Amino acid sequence: MTRDAIVVGGGIGGLAAALALHRIGWRATVLERAPEAGEIGAGMSQSPNALRALAELGVEERARSVGVPTHASGNLRLPDGRYLQRAWPNDTTALVAYHRADLHRTLLDALPAGWVRTGSEVTAIRQDGDSVTVACGETELSAELVVAADGIRSTVRGLLWPDAPPPRFLGRTAWLGIAEIADLPGSMTLGPEGYFLIHPISRGRAYWAHVATADEPGVRYAGEKAEVVRRVATWHEPIPQLIAATPDERIIHIDIHDLDPLPTYVRGRVALLGDAAHAMSPDRGQGAGQSIEDAVVLAAALADEPTIAAALARYDTERRPRTQATARGARADGRRTTSRAAHRVLVTMIRLMPAALWRKGIAPEGNPTWRWQPPHLRAPDRPH
């Protein structure tokens, strides 16, 4: 008998969860509140841990084909253009960069037709011993399991974790854009109160992000492009070129938040996944990647354990320590890269580090986060 789940949220984490469930023989209904399936935002990179998880979902080859290798972690610069560390053309790079929509489409295309229901906003949820019922307006759906992948401002978390603190502003804001400029190698420029990140992405484009300190959230400008130009006008090329090549209306301005750690990601037959469980700052490039990991670990537990309760307990035990440690590390990295007080120390440390040691640290197996190995997703007709 096919087992069934409801996935709340049709972003990268939600689609990864549905695809992981599909791989173990479950059926999933994905409830997405937006009127159309798609991904907002601009670019991102995925590291080896996420790419291994995508392999377990059966989409690594396709995902690599729509991404572009990026040397952003190897090319560290100062605003005047000087290199602190530099990648060479034959260096192996651990990162693959994407437009978010391209990776989202890869996951969406791998799902069975009809699994995603758009225009479905969850308004209530209730549980009994054997099932979970989700209300979307006047419609109700029931399943054995609900996976809440509905983002940092998760409706499901608010309903079932009412005492959990709201997202926390981290004192930083970011402008994001996509420019029609090809063949950039990727880089990160460290300024005294922020940084500028560049990734090449598919179809001859480049993704850029400027992250800077901010006293409070919600501050917006009549001309967002003019504001980011003002902040980095004297920085090295191609930074001014990238901003100039980005249409004004396509520049995205966001404030950066994360979540305080939750004591559990599970309530009954409901599991939080991705940003709904452990939203983190982007400074380690792990937000989407950790949600893909979550999906694979959850599905593996469901395939291996005798009951849903046991599977969810295993998922919680395995994922909370890793994701919360990653979030703490990302928060600390963000403070170091946007603090004027820390800037001089950080720059000196990077400059003095031998190039060989730096390359070792950013190699595909260079850090514990990247070395993570996913569990194998066992199809139901295969032996353990």
UniProtKB/TrEMBL annotation:
Top-level taxonomic group: Bacteria
Gene Ontology molecular function, alphabetical: FAD binding; monooxygenase activity
Keyword Membrane in annotation: no
Stretches of the chain forming a coiled coil according to its record: none
InterPro entries cross-referenced by the UniProt entry: FAD-bd, FAD-dep_Monooxygenase_BioMet, FAD/NAD-bd_sf
Keywords: Monooxygenase, Oxidoreductase
Chain intervals for the UniProt region annotation (Disordered): 319-338, 365-384
Domain FAD-binding: 4-328
Protein known as: 2-polyprenyl-6-methoxyphenol hydroxylase-like oxidoreductase
